[in-house]
Hints:
Blueprint: E1 2-8, H1 18-27, E2 30-37, H2 42-57, E3 59-65, H3 70-97, H4 108-124, E4 127-134, H5 143-158, E5 164-171, E6 181-187, H6 190-194, H7 208-221
Parallel strand pairs: 1-2, 1-4, 2-3, 4-5
Antiparallel strand pairs: 5-6
Organism: Paenibacillus solani
Protein name: VWFA domain-containing protein
Amino acid sequence: xxxxxxxxxxxxxxxxxxxxxxxxxxxxxxxxxxxxxxxxxxxxxxxxxxxxxxxxxxxxxxxxxxxxxxxxxxxxxxxxxxxxxxxxxxxxxxxxxxxxxxxxxxxxxxxxxxxxxxxxxxxxxxxxxxxxxxxxxxxxxxxxxxxxxxxxxxxxxxxxxxxxxxxxxxxxxxxxxxxxxxxxxxxxxxxxxxxxxxxxxxxxxxxxxxxxxxxxxxxxxxxxxxxxxxxxxxxxxxxxxxxxxx
Length: 246
């Protein structure tokens, strides 16, 4: 199972729409979940709306939290999304077997057996989580909470029976036109993830859409440079991936 877990305060302002990028992720079989760490006021309201739309387009869930609740929220969302993904697959199979029926139509004893299978698969299925961190200037005060959240997420992933891997990205990159940086490749090593925070520089704009597209590319090819057609362009484009600037 593949997930992108985006941590952001919303209000992307460079490049492709993050909502359209999330829709492309879902087409690739990658669920996009979003945790919003928002400020109060108009900017926070706009960011919250964007966060909700990104998660909806990506087939995932979203939560708006303050920094103290960030770590617990990320663990809960990852767990919940795994269960939901498996439930969707099981319900699809049941729908076909029953000729259009649903899990609710099963007898109580059979239904409880299916729920037990779903819970077991949630713990044993292989899981990959690409953690995408908004490192724009407005997120700087929240960095310590993000670090704690990632540490707790890694501990919870390691406690699963099934294979769990985490890859970490941040955006924007150091250089002009660099939408995203891959800080940690697929790993189950907690120490390797911790070391990335000493290298993070919180600055710049918020190219959330281009960053999402690059992570999709990483899932596809194992590199951020695998397919030139995914590159974001400075000029206007036509179609679904046209430039989106707030």
